[in-house]
Design goal:
Layout lengths: L1 H15 L4 E2 L7 E7 L8 E9 L2 E8 L6 E5 L19 H5 L4 E5 L8 H18 L6 E6 L1 H12 L6 E5 L5 H12 L4 H10 L12 H19 L7 H6 L13 E6 L7 H13 L6 E6 L7 H4 L2 H14 L9
Parallel strand pairs: 5-6, 5-7, 7-8, 8-9, 9-10
Antiparallel strand pairs: 1-2, 2-3, 3-4, 4-6
Helix pairs in contact: 3-4, 5-7
């Protein structure tokens, strides 16, 4: 009777939350989970693989209706103190692509902080792993949010033979400007004065997703400090280190069809940084490869901005695969 009850419990757990199936000790540490997708127009099944590569946790999701194509997702910034090594922050976005028949893969980079270099390395490693071990027969796309937008722009420029198109959602593109803005905000001790400065610069008080203006100040101090840590000093001390991980200073390297979506009221990564990147791309004679679409009043990766991911991705795919140019940019 105990065995029968145990079997019933196991079956219920498999339906509700999925059961990890641990492979042999000789294989790479891997967990395969099959479960039902939620939040889609129709409930879809996919196979999920969790694997550790280079010290980073990664998730690969293959839908049962797989079209042979892959979307590689890149997460945004997480402070060193707040980083959770056991989570993949962009897992929640994968249904947007799975419902279209795409497989997804995402890495947590293995560490927190402004780890752009590590994000590039670990995401490239994950991409190669998927291509070597799964039957990818179609195009490979990149999609990243915030710091992840920076990472996908760099990956697309560095590995044009590996990827086919890039979707950047409010990505950071000039780390020196990011550092300067954040440390300036952090220096304003009065909440009223800080809120007014944010609003005067086109943002909202408090900026999404921070709950209070004081929390925004703390965020700016932490993230600004961690940008400097990643670059080995301030922009005045290490200008080349900032430029190396700033897409604006490497606009000549853009090599793939690329779309940026950015909210005009973004206080965490100002919309102006995407305009500056567009201007750099144009100056390098690469405007035929780039489109930027603003979300009027959109904040940092809030609902109106995230709502642009699916339609803009469809335009990117149509551009890459059918040569259909997307609408003109709306800077």
């Amino acid at each position: 009777m105990k065995s029968k009850n145990l079997l019933i419990v196991i079956c219920l757990v498999a339906v509700m939350v999925a059961i990890p199936l641990i492979e042999s000790a000789q294989a790479a540490p891997k967990v395969i989970v099959t479960r039902r997708q939620t939040g889609a127009p129709s409930l879809l099944w996919y196979t999920q693989t969790n694997i550790v590569l280079g010290g980073a946790n990664n998730t690969i999701k293959i839908p049962d209706n797989w079209n042979g194509k892959l979307v590689v997702l890149c997460r945004g910034y997480s402070s060193i103190a707040g980083f959770n090594p056991n989570t993949i922050p962009l897992d929640t976005l994968s249904p947007l692509f799975i419902v279209k028949g795409y497989a997804t893969a995402a890495s947590n980079y293995g560490e927190g902080g402004y780890c752009v270099k590590e994000g590039v390395i670990r995401t490239h490693q994950l991409t190669e792993y998927v291509l070597d071990n799964y039957g990818v027969t179609g195009n490979v796309y990149l999609a990243g949010i915030s710091m992840g937008g920076n990472i996908v722009l760099q990956l697309g420029a560095k590995y044009p033979e590996l990827y086919d198109g890039v979707l950047d959602i409010c990505g950071s593109k000039d780390l020196a400007a990011q550092y300067t803005d954040k440390m300036y905000y952090a220096s304003i001790a009065d909440d009223i004065a800080l809120g007014k400065e944010v609003v005067d610069r086109g943002g909202v008080n408090p900026p999404y997703p921070l709950p209070t203006i004081a929390a925004f100040r703390d965020y700016c101090l932490t993230s600004g400090t961690e940008i400097a840590l990643a670059c080995g000093g301030t922009p005045a001390e290490k200008p080349k280190a900032y430029e190396r991980i700033s897409p604006t200073f490497n606009a000549a390297d853009i090599a793939l069809p690329t779309i940026t979506v950015h909210g005009t009221a973004d206080a965490l990564v100002p919309y102006s940084t995407s305009i500056e990147f567009m201007n750099a791309v144009v100056a390098e004679g690469q405007s035929s490869l780039y489109r930027i679409y603003k979300v009027v009043g959109g904040q940092h990766a809030n609902t109106p901005v995230l709502g642009q991911i699916s339609p803009r991705f469809d335009q990117l795919v149509n551009w890459v695969e059918n040569g259909v140019l997307p609408p003109a940019s709306t800077p």
